[in-house]
Amino acid sequence: MDTQSQTAIKGKIRTPVRMTGAEAVVKSLQNEGVNLIFGYPGGAIMPVYDALYSVQKELHHVLVRHEQGAVHAAQGYARVSGKVGVAIVTSGPGATNAVTGIADALIDSTPLVVISGQVGSTLLGTDAFQETDVVGVTQPITKWNFQVKKAEDIPYAIARAFYIARSGRPGPVLLDITKDAQFASFDYVYEPVNYIRAYKPIPDVEQEQIVAAAQLINLSKKPLALIGQGVILGGAEQELREFLEKSGIPAAWTLLGLSALPSDHPLNVGMLGMHGNYGPNIKTNEADLIIAIGMRFDDRVTGDLKTYAQKAKVIHLEIDAAEINKNVHADVPVLGDVKETLPLLTQKISPNSFPEWLEEFKACYRIEHDRIIKHQLAPLKPGLTMGEVVDRVSTAFGDDAIMVTDVGQHQMMASRYFRFKQSRSVVTSGGLGTMGFGLPAAMGAKLGAPDRQVCLFVGDGGMQMTIQELGTIFQTKIPVKIVLLNNNFLGMVRQWQELFFDSRYASTELINPDFQMISKGYHIEAEKVSEREDLDAAIQRMVNHDGAFLLEVVVEKEGNVFPMVPSGASVSDIRLE
Amino acid sequence: MRMKQEFTISIFSENHVGILTRITNVFTRRNLNIESLTTSMSALPDVHKFTIVVYSTRDEIEKVSKQIEKGIDVIKAFVLTEDEIIHQEVALYKVPTKTLLEGNEIEKLVREYGARILEVTKEYTVIEKTGHQNETQELFDKMDKYGVVQFTRSGRISVTKSKDELLDNYLRNLESKKNGLTAN
């Protein structure tokens, strides 16, 4: 359910202690079990930084190079660890720079607490230096936000922020704290929040819906389960396996559902969506039952809704009531945390298997393999493909690394060809599609899972959106492995231009810097590969290197990602070329 | 489901700063025009009430209401139709007193429409009418022939016809669960 509340030592402080608002911010973070935050100082947040200075050993602060990086790093940290990521920024431009990351965290349900400094309360509304209406700006992109103008409101606001961020469907929360509130002294007490009257994080489970869902499952001849991030957020990976293995139902995952099951699980039939696998897309429209588990029927998954899964009844297991019937009508909505609802469902269904139906997926896979996959993984022509690089890297890490991606062609290739053994192995910007997400998210992921290898795939475009975070990687000594797939193009846009805009490559070709030299400028070891015969050895050197490493791989200039469901087309009109 | 009709959404929330924008944002994002909006305290202590009138389809309005309820401090949103509520609006009409003195048409309209005169000065007279929008509008259209200099109408306020107090029950339920929670 929420990992942090189970593991963190939640401090209650009942005897008042005199302290400043800034000290209260720091103390409250510690009381919520936080030991790592990402941020960037500035005028309006300086009192908090001063308070952080006193507790550097217990509450480590990672100084990023841009506030966007702080939020993406906090996202990477949250996604791999299941804890709440914390970012701290100053007022005005500090806070507006954080906006992209906050929006990304909302659409991808990532628990974050972002703390922004604000000008003194007497200056509010006067267009003071570095004043922005941050609560107004972030209102549509936060799960909750709040401006704190009095020191004594800080403990409750922070307790509430953490509870809201991590409970139910997680999301980002922003607290805007005025500078005078940071300076003022008050008697500090701390009480964690676990109840808000108007907020119901997990809906009640209705037994009738479980029964109705089980009936549909027991009658189905061609069922297909769609696995979303809800399974990972709910920590329901084991419950999912038990459900699938008893029911024998083939399962396809969404981009954010990747790694909820092992890649090689016999019932795993691959990825849904625009650049997902052929089988799950085609078979969505042949299935007689869709069981959506913690996913939200994003348009990149469904394509044209009018033709989507028309032969199927739909069971929708979901924690967020607003997702039910939002895009796809649910014949049986099963509200609740999937960790709770899946076992109830597993209990009620009969053991089953669908060998012929599964065989149809395998047949689709053979077609896809023949037409696409083998040309990616074992190309006969010169020029490295993104697919073969991803495949070799995955193998070199023993198929057990955390895969972080930026956004674009490489993201789809990584999602298609990387393999996963355990959950929480993927950090990618799904809903928002934020270029520049990858590098800072990879830093956060490595700090959130220090015992695992973290491998970033990034394109030459996205790399340059947050390239300054190489400075953070160097300063903080974060041993991430960076695979830069360089085609000197904004590849995904170029692909669309080729397919839908008569190959008119408007502003998609990049003339790039020497990435190795940049990396080495930050004292990060780097190598460049452009020939197939050099690839494996270079990857091995990257894997073995003790510390951060950038491997630039020059890939074919005009490679395309296929299969592809063109925007607005039906999932069954998926194109193989 | 697909036909557009008038809905009254009753929203109950905590009385916190910023909730109104969170609520109206849901409409803005869907490009839905709010016909009228009123906000006031409810009968329950600390509970605030928003009444929003909007034209839309049942399908869309159900989605809107669920998205509104996602707001952390929103307690509950109820989607109601005309037959489920008693509702009223107040309209004020300012006319030059001269027109009242020169003929008896305005006076006749005031009687006919059950309106009342709030204030009379040498220069102007203010008339008030409570009712449904079509009624206050009709009075305006008729009176404007004689020159209305100002006209204003409030948003809708409404109460439900149901015997059960939906929100009361909902809150009581919540509180008992909370108590159960602390007992554990």
Describe this structure in words.
- The complex is a heterodimer of chains A (577) and B (184).
- With 577 residues, chain A is α/β, with parallel strands linked by helices.
- Chain A folds into 3 domains: 3-190, Rossmann fold; 207-361, Rossmann fold (3-Layer(aba) Sandwich), CATH 3.40.50; 384-554, Thiamin diphosphate (ThDP)-binding fold, Pyr/PP domains (Rossmann fold), CATH 3.40.50.
- In chain A, the strands form 4 sheets. Chain A has a 6-stranded parallel sheet with strand order 3-2-4-5-7-6. Chain A has a 6-stranded parallel sheet with strand order 11-10-9-12-13-14, with helices on both faces. Chain A has a 6-stranded parallel sheet with strand order 16-15-17-18-20-19, with helices on both faces.
- In chain A, strand 15 (402-405), helix 17 (409-417) and strand 16 form a beta-alpha-beta unit.
- The longest helix of chain A has 23 residues, at 355-377.
- The radius of gyration of chain A is 24 Å and the shape is globular.
- The mean pLDDT of chain B is 91.
- Chain B has 2 domains: 4-80, ACT domain (Alpha-Beta Plaits), CATH 3.30.70; 86-157, ACT-like. Chain A, domain 2 (Alpha-Beta Plaits), CATH 3.30.70.1150.
- Chain B is α+β, with helices and mostly antiparallel strands.
- In chain B, a hairpin with a 5-residue loop joins strand 2 (34-41) and strand 3 (47-57).
- Chain B contains 6 helices and 9 strands, in the order βαββαββααββαββα.
- Chain B has helices at 19-29, 58-69, 97-102, 105-112, 133-144, 166-183, and strands at residues 4-14, 34-41, 47-57, 74-80, 85-96, 116-120, 124-131, 150-153, 157-160.
- In chain B, the strands form 2 sheets. In chain B, strands 5, 6, 7, 8 and 9 form a 5-stranded antiparallel sheet that branches. In chain B, strands 2-3-1-4 form a 4-stranded antiparallel sheet.
- Chain A binds chain B through residues 135-136, 139-140, 143-147, 164, 194-200, 320-322, 324-326, and chain B through 13-14, 17-18, 21-22, 25, 29, 59, 62-63, 66-67, 69-70, 72-75, 171, 174-175, 178, 181.
